[in-house]
Amino acid sequence: MSIGFGVGLRTPHYREFLENKPAVDWLEVHSENYFGDGGWDMHVLMTLRETYPISLHGVGLGLGSANGISSAHLAKIKALADRVQPELVSEHLCWGNVSGRVLNDLLPLPYTEEVLAVIAAHVRQMQDVLGRQVLIENLSSYVQFASSTLSEAAFLNELVAQTGCGLLLDVNNVYVNQCNHGISALDTIHALNLDAVKEIHLAGHCVLDDVVIDHHGDVVADEVWDLYRIVVARMGHVSTLIEWDTDVPDLSVLLAQSDKARGVAHQASQVLV
Q1: What NCBIfam families does this protein map onto (predicted)?
Q2: How would you write the chain as a 3-class SS string?
Q3: Which domains can be identified in the chain, with CATH numbers?
Q4: Which of 71, 72, 123, 239 has the fewest Cβ atoms nearer than 10 Å?
Q5: Residue-wise over 197-217: b if at least 16 C-beta within 10 A, else e?
């Protein structure tokens, strides 16, 4: 069930949300920013959850890490989810730790049966601890692995089949990978099990001479809006978020992008295919 059109809650906008309660359907936060038991950030989140549905979006668990995921980190996500009672909980299809060291990045995986078994075990572990379905987000990447034997879509579909997880479809990431690797964004979308998609991310990217960077620092590109139309035309309304993490603008810019998503989705859903 769609919870509408939301924006990521960022620190520069705390005061405006607290004082004005701007019209937006829901808010998403990065889980790791709220692991503390108290403080200003937690106060803001707990206050706003009385007005807005909340989604917890994790960036640090590293579900694809071969040496396992941190039980302490997972326990903090569990405590936060129990406290906030979010509508959605999500994590990335990536790895992020090795030899006891946590790397501050969302690192890509080879798409093989061996890696699938590792990440499926970790997704099941996360869902068992949280007692709920978790959404897994497709990744933007800047390298590919020669050892991959599955497409990204096939890998994600099999992960859903093995674990019962849902998908968070980042449409911008699909487009970035098309630009960087020549992988058809349309083919990826058409191959995905869209019945498993419970949330969509839309964001801006940075085009350089030899690479496209998923920097979340600009308005959504026209090409990404076109792909979003295609997704909604195939599956109808789905909870949609505008992400913006670098050079964060006035809140009005994010709200305008969210309103645009609402308009695009309404138009596209009239022509379900």
Answers
A1: PRK05409.1
A2: CCCCEEEECCHHHHHHHHHHCCCCCEEEEEHHHHCCCCCHHHHHHHHHCCCCCEEEECCCCCCCCCCCCCHHHHHHHHHHHHHHCCCEEEEECCEEEECCEEEEEEECCCCCHHHHHHHHHHHHHHHHHHCCCCEEECCCCCCCCCCCCCCHHHHHHHHHHHHCCEEEEEHHHHHHHHHHHCCCHHHHHHHCCHHHEEEEEECCCEECCCCEECCCCCCCCHHHHHHHHHHHHHHCCCEEEECCCCCCCCHHHHHHHHHHHHHHHHHHHCCCC
A3: 5-269 (3.20.20.150)
A4: 72
A5: bbbbbbbbbeeeeeebbbbbb
243: amino acid identity, one letter: E
